[in-house]
Amino acid sequence: MDTDSRFRKLKMGLKGKGINTVIGRGSVSEGRFRVERGVRVDGVLKGELVSSGTLIVGESGVIEADVKVHDALISGRIVGTLEADEKVHLQANAAFAGKIKTRMLIVEEGAIFKAECDAGGELQIKEPDEAGEGTPELADQKSG
Questions:
Q1: Which of 102, 96, 91, 88 is nearest to 143 (CA)?
Q2: Does the pLDDT of residue 113 top 50, yes or no?
Q3: 95: how many CB neighbours lie within 10 A of its CB?
Q4: What is the pTM of this model?
Q5: Can you give the pLDDT at residue 142?
Q6: What is the total count of domains within the chain?
Q7: How many CA atoms lie within 13 A of 121 on its CB side?
Q8: In 3D, which of 45, 33, 97 has the Cα closest to residue 69?
Q9: pLDDT tens across 121-142, in order?
Q10: What is the DSSP string of 53-122?
Q11: Are 141 and 121 a contacting pair, CB within 8 Å?
C-alpha cells in the first residue's frame, strides 16, 4: 500500500476529525499554529503547532517545531518535540530527532529515530514481599 493510500485510510477512520489544514509541497510556514482539526504537512512548518486532531506529515514534509496533537502519522521529517495524546506512527521513510511523548509508539523498520522517548504510560516496580520471596515485577500504571 503506498503512502497516499495509507493517508486516505487513516483519514477515513478519524470519525469526523478530518484534515482541514494543509501546508502544501513548496510552502514554508513559520509561527504559532492552533488548529481545531487535523493537519497535513507536505511543505515546511517551523515554530509551534497545537491541534486537537491528527497530524499527517507526507514524504516531502519537514517540521521543525514543538508539536502537540491527538495522534500522528509521519512519513517525512520532524525535528523538535512531539507530544501525542494517543499514537505516533513513524513509517519506514520517516525521520525523527528530538523528544517524543505518547501513549503508543510504532516505528517501522527503516525509520530514523533519534529521540528521548516516553511512551505507554507509567511503570512501577513491585518489590518482593517482606519475607524476600518472589521476584520484582513491573506493574503497569496507565496514565489517563
A1: 102
A2: yes
A3: 17
A4: 0.75
A5: 52
A6: 1
A7: 10
A8: 33
A9: 776 666 666 666 655 566 555 5
A10: SEEEE-TT-EEEEEEEESEEEESSEEEEEEEEEEEEEE-TT-EEEEEEEEEEEEE-TT-EEEEEEEESSE
A11: yes
For residue 10, the 8-state DSSP code is H
Residue 136 near residue 123, CB atoms below 8 Å: no
Residues spanned by the domain of 41: 3-141
Whole-number Å distance between alpha carbons of 130 and 104: 35
Q: How confident is the model at residue 12 (pLDDT cuts 50, 70, 90)?
A: very low
134 phi-psi bin (left φ>0, alpha ψ -120 to 50, beta other): left
3-class DSSP state of 11? helix
CB atoms within 10 A of CB 23: 22
